[in-house]
Write a structure and sequence with these properties.
By secondary structure, the protein is of the alpha+beta class. The protein has eleven helices and eleven strands. Strand 9 and strand 10 form a beta hairpin. Pfam families: DUF1679 (PF07914).
Length: 357
């Protein structure tokens, strides 16, 4: 090992640099070791991420020809709570699995995976994964995503859904353990009014037949996406955070993305345009019947999913306002944008609720 002395924890978690070094050396098939100049910095704080995230700048020691091929930097995502073990393990499965066998489109724009551990391995109360450090610009829910960026993500979502839809035999490999963990104790208030409780009870009846389930990201809001900005162009770089990957309706990811990507002004003006774009992309890629009879049925399914998802997210957003705004909490314009967005989400939820429930 390249590091001497006492074990050095990463972000005060059970994951140590010694464990990370051993796993990386095995995964990358290298004899190189960590040197003393390795640095660790916490990233992603205030963006609503489930894991603790560290940016690790490596100091590889060894044959220069060997160290040249090794990653210079990585993002390490760590879960140290038993209650969140399924979340970490789900993402590890997504990145480490045989993509064809698990119905994962081979050319998705996702980070390169280096190594990881299932929660509890060797009796250690943590799970983690190390992946490529992706660069790009993030948009918060109170910021607008440009049209080119929205279309890029919709294309990627159609690709993800179509590939698993065309290989339905792969879907039983997904347990949905990550999303079920979040639903048991995640973004909810302690009490929900009777109408929302009734909607929760009928949700299973709204789920599509298993033959029409697809692989979903599960948490595709804008903080989990990075975009490239070059010469004023705004394009998708990479989609992050697959801890809630699950099988379900394609409308699940659509709601999470579009509600967070579009402003209160943009959403009512362009939602049908974006839904039509996605619908046509999916129809062109699927080798068989669509999950809906026609576009109108698709819009209905989307709006019902909107109610079921956003009705829970709105109170969570309000509760976590300061955390989500982070360093921008004193920026009056951004605070106003945040408040306006939440107000619109609530009104749109009521509109869809009155229309379909």
């Amino acid at each position: 090992m390249g590091l001497a002395g006492a074990a050095r924890p990463i972000l005060e978690t059970p994951l140590t640099l010694e464990i990370l070094e051993a796993d990386l050396r095995a995964a990358l098939e290298t004899d190189a070791t960590f040197g003393p100049a390795i640095t660790i910095k916490q990233v992603g704080k205030g963006a609503g991420f489930i894991s603790k995230m560290a940016k690790v700048d490596f100091d590889w020691q060894g044959n220069p020809e060997e160290t040249q091929r090794l990653p210079k930097v990585a993002v390490v995502k760590i879960v140290g709570e038993t209650a969140k073990a399924n979340l970490s393990d789900t993402e590890l499965q997504f990145f480490s699995a045989d993509r064809e066998a698990f119905g994962i489109a081979p050319d998705l724009r996702i980070p390169k995976f280096y190594c990881g551990r299932k929660f509890g391995k060797d009796g250690i109360e943590m799970g983690y994964l190390a992946e490529e450090f992706s660069t790009g610009q993030m948009r918060h829910i109170y910021e607008q995503v440009e049209e080119t960026g929205v279309l890029d993500v919709l294309d990627e979502m159609a690709k993800l859904a179509a590939y698993s839809r065309n290989h339905p035999e792969t879907l039983d490999k997904w347990t949905n353990a990550g999303i079920e963990t979040l639903l048991r104790g995640g973004r909810t208030l302690e009490s929900i009014n009777l109408r929302l409780e009734n909607m929760k009870n009928i949700y299973p009846e709204l789920a599509p037949d298993c033959a029409y389930c697809v692989l979903c990201h599960g948490d595709l809001w804008t903080p989990n996406i990075l975009w490239n900005t070059t010469d004023g162009d705004f394009r998708l770089a990479v989609i992050l955070d697959w801890q809630l990957a699950n099988t379900g309706s394609p409308t699940e990811d659509l709601v999470y993305f579009l509600h967070s990507a579009l402003s209160a002004t943009e959403y009512p003006e362009k939602i049908k345009y974006y839904l039509s774009h996605y619908y046509n992309k999916l129809a062109a890629a699927i080798k068989g019947p669509m999950p809906w009879e026609d576009f109108d049925q698709f819009v209905k399914a989307y709006e019902m999913s909107y109610v079921l998802s956003v009705s829970v997210l709105v109170p969570w957003y309000a509760q976590e306002k300061d955390e989500l705004l982070g360093d921008n909490r004193d920026d009056a314009a951004l605070v106003q944008a945040f408040d306006g967005k939440i107000t619109f989400l609530a009104k749109e939820t009521v509109r869809c609720m009155e229309k379909w429930f």
